[in-house]
Amino acid sequence: MGFIILIVLGGIIGWLASIVMRIDDVQGILLSAGVGIFSTIAAGLVTSSGSLIGGISGISLVLSFLGAIAVLAVFHYFRRNSAH
Questions:
Q1: Cβ atoms within 10 A of the Cβ of 72, count?
Q2: How far are the Cα atoms of 23, 46, 65, 70, 72 from residue 77, in angstroms, in the given order?
Q3: Of 17, 48, 73, 76, which cross-links 68 as Cys (Cβ 3.0–4.6 Å)?
Q4: Closest to 72 measured CA to CA, from 9, 24, 18
Q5: What SS3 state is found at 25?
Q6: Contact 17/72 with Cβ under 8 angstroms?
């Protein structure tokens, strides 16, 4: 059950990160949700000493949000530069 919660929270965090970054173009919600899920799982692993399921805490949510913003910024940077 904890893994499903991480996936749902990751999707929400990725969506919120795309709103903060103002990236609502072609990439769509799937990439944003994927980035959020990845960053939520990574932050859960980092903050909980390797326990994936018990890794939901306030600090892990903040770290996953910041990670999602960083990954979206890097993705948007490379995507914008490859178009030129």
A1: 22
A2: 11, 26, 18, 11, 8
A3: 17
A4: 18
A5: coil
A6: yes
Q: Are 10 and 52 in contact (CB under 8 A)?
A: no
Which tokens sit at 56? 């939901």
Q: Residues 28-54: pLDDT tens digits? A: 677 777 888 888 777 777 776 555 555
Per-residue burial over 37-50, b if 16 or more Cβ lie within 10 Å, else e, is bbbbbbbbeebbee
Q: How confident is the model at residue 9 (pLDDT cuts 50, 70, 90)?
A: confident
Single-letter amino acid, residue 46: V
CA–CA gap between residue 14 and residue 40 (Å, rounded): 9
Alpha helices in the chain (DSSP H): 2-20, 28-47, 58-82
